[in-house]
Design brief:
Elements (H helix, E strand, L loop, with lengths): L14 E9 L6 E7 L5 E3 L7 H9 L6 H9 L6 H8 L1 H9 L8 E5 L5 H7 L4 E6 L2 H11 L3 E3 L13 E7 L8 H10 L1 E12 L20 E2 L2 H10 L2 E6 L12 H8 L21 H15 L2 H14 L5 E8 L2
Parallel strand pairs: 4-5, 4-7, 5-6, 7-8
Antiparallel strand pairs: 1-2, 2-3, 3-9, 8-11, 10-11
Bound molecules: zinc ion.
Length: 333
């Protein structure tokens, strides 16, 4: 049982250990999953995270769950508008694509947790002044080699708060759920904002998944928390900042995804298996065969443009939650 006595996001004490000894990312590691009855978040209680796991994840290039990021990174350089390509692949990037219309053309953008660097690069290609940072050295090496010299291997906590480091927009997609202390993380981002600057975050939306789910998310401690809209609202009000959160489907018609099929497919609790062994080798997933069959059917049927558009229309019209929470934060005037 955990010694944690309040929610790491909203700090309320209505918490309970939901699941003891949940199998972690690395074989032989286990975590207690704690539920907050106030904000609805699930999280693990831990004092530190072994960050060498990111060297494993980004060093292998074909890591399940991260392999698509590598594919994007490889593909982008041949494209005229890489951001549009990303936007048509995943709603995470669609949010960025939509949002940057509000920016000045010479805006300074920081991407925190840039991974292989493709999103930073796609913004650079549109003329913005960009910096991408990530704690995973293999990812930054890849980014520098492939895209150019606008990356740095460091954690946001070590980025100096100088006049040179003031940004009009700080983007951090799917990163906050990896942090130990989300308020501290967001507080640091605020210290790097220029006048009228804004922060754009995305994180998996827990309310998209089944209510009785335990952890339909990357295994802990890679993900340390699974958040709801209320979690973010509570955190923002604690930090005394302004927010705008979007969690409803929008008129989004991705070229590569059937959102309706995805909805019925990935809301299920995954198997309680570890992902890698102690040496960082990926453990065989049980469902490889069924996944291969699914991918075949998906290609032939669900990704047919007409079927996909009809399914996406149904999804956009009748489904209340998107898989991703899009969060904009800024200083109160
Ligand atoms: Zn909470």
């Amino acid at each position: 049982m955990s010694n944690q006595n309040s929610c790491i996001i909203c700090e309320k004490t209505e918490i309970e250990t939901l699941y003891s000894k949940y199998p972690g990312y690395v074989k032989g590691t286990f975590y207690d999953i704690i539920k907050c009855y106030n904000c609805g978040a699930h999280f693990i209680s831990t004092d530190s995270i072994d960050k060498s796991i990111y060297k494993v994840i980004y060093g292998r290039k074909n890591f399940s769950g991260y392999d698509r990021y590598y594919e994007y990174a490889k593909k982008l350089k041949s494209l005229e508008n890489p951001l549009k390509y990303l936007a048509m692949n995943e709603s995470i990037y669609y949010h960025v694509y939509n949002y940057i219309n509000t920016l000045d053309s010479n805006a300074k953008i920081l991407e925190v947790g840039c991974g292989y660097g493709y999103l930073t690069y796609s913004l650079q290609q549109l003329g913005y002044n960009v910096l991408g940072i990530d704690l995973a050295q293999p990812a930054i090496n890849f980014a520098k080699k492939n895209f150019g010299d606008f990356y740095s291997c460091l954690e946001v906590s070590s980025l100096k708060n100088t006049d040179d480091n003031k940004f009009d927009l700080i983007i951090s997609t799917e990163v906050i759920e990896h942090t130990l202390n989300p308020s501290e993380f967001v507080g640091k981002l605020f210290s790097l904002l220029g006048k009228n600057g804004k922060i754009l975050l995305t994180t998996p939306n827990k309310e998209y998944f089944k209510t009785n789910s335990i952890w339909v998310s990357t295994k802990p401690p890679v993900h340390t928390m699974w958040l709801t809209r209320k979690s973010i609202e509570e955190m923002a009000s604690k930090l005394d900042v302004a927010w705008n959160i979007q969690q409803n489907p929008f008129r989004y018609y991705p070229t590569y995804e059937n959102q309706l099929v995805r909805y019925f497919r990935i809301r299920e609790e995954p198997s309680f298996d570890h992902v890698v062994d102690e040496e960082g080798n990926q453990l065989a997933q049980k469902s490889v065969k069924s996944r291969r069959i699914f991918h075949y059917v998906k290609k032939q049927l669900f990704e047919n443009p007409i079927i996909r558009n009809i399914c996406n229309f149904v999804y956009n019209t009748f489904f209340p939650q998107d898989i991703t929470l899009r969060i904009i934060l800024w200083k109160k005037m």
